Amino acid sequence: MPSLGLIVEASTTTAASREADRTLMAIAVARGWGSLRVSHVAGDVLALGRYHLAPAGAPDVILDRRLTGGRAAASGAGFVTLALALPHRSALVSDDPLALAPEQVLNRAVRGLLGALEAAGVAAIYPGRDVVTAARRPIAVVGFEIDGAGATLIEAVLALERDQSLLPRLLDRADPAGVVGAGMVLPGDVTSLGQELDRVPELDEVVAWLRHGYEARLGIRFVGEDPPREVNGDVDRTVRSRVLRPELDRHGVTATMLGRFEAHCALAADGTLAEVVLAGDFLAPSPTIDRLEHALRGCRPDVEVLEGIIDTVVRPPHDFILGVGPLRIVAEMIARGTA
Predict the structure, then answer these.
(1) Which of 229, 205, 230 has the alpha carbon at shortest distance from 119?
(2) In this predicted model, what pLDDT tens digit does every residue of 164-176 receive, in sequence order?
């Protein structure tokens, strides 16, 4: 039976959360088993995915950047965040890190959340991609990250009292220039646990349901654990780790299964790519994206050349990009955007 530490933080900050997750990923690798951290942050939070470019921001919106990829999400007051740190991507089901294919990681990881919602009386499913739904409406946004040591983080933003129809309003306030792409989400398109239950559950109820869900669906044994000590995160540095710089004056974009995928590029005097920053709604290990952006520098923005480089770098099972379809789309997008 796998073990997980259980950490509950009824009140924390976005900066402390990100640094806690980084620390817990390292701890998971060192000891061979992971942690589930359940937390709540006050205020209106615009939670960017790992690969979004940072918008301008607004005084009344807290900008956050998750360690995981996927779409931008509303978070903070009215939401609960689950962060599952594991020593490797298959740790919930096997000692073999490669037992799960990339597209199976979220499917297995969210089973505990599905069990929790079932225990609460809500029929929910994981239809694939980066959401969990109830009555065919998203109730949680999910994503994952795999770092250079293989440590894996699965995150879920669960709608408790408010829902993802808040996202367009947060973007209107914090991103008037439209840097972060997101479709219009109306109240009828999404749901929350409070809406499904006709009441807003307390955090301790949610934690009890999560314990039951992970124990029943995955055979997890929970161990009480304290949050990491002396966590001092710089939220502005994290959020601004990906920004649109003036020299990135060439832009390609394509619609994908999760939203949109973008390439912001600079061309050298000889017409080759001087720099490439990939952005948008996708799921990939961050070392893969780092290597790919580096490998694309200096090459001609020709579809066949670009596709060859992408195929050389993005080689499953260790390297992958989910949510964009055939990777030739990426090559075509860069070539089109730099033409």
Answers:
(1) 205
(2) 999 999 999 999 9
Residue 121 contacts residue 53 (beta carbons within 8 Å): no
Per-residue burial over 92-113, b = 16 or more CB atoms within 10 Å of its CB, e = otherwise = bbeeebeebebeebbebbbbbb
Instruction: Name the pTM for this structure.
Output: 0.95
Cα 149 to Cα 34: distance, rounded to the nearest angstrom: 14
Neighbours of 175 (CB within 10 A): 24
State the distance between the two ends of the chain, measured CA to CA, in whole angstroms.
55
Q: Quick: pLDDT tens for 14-68.
A: 999 999 999 999 999 999 999 999 999 999 999 999 999 999 999 999 999 999 9
Helical axes 203-218 vs 111-120, angle rounded to 10°: 120
HSE-up of 22 (CA within 13 Å, CB side)?
Answer: 15
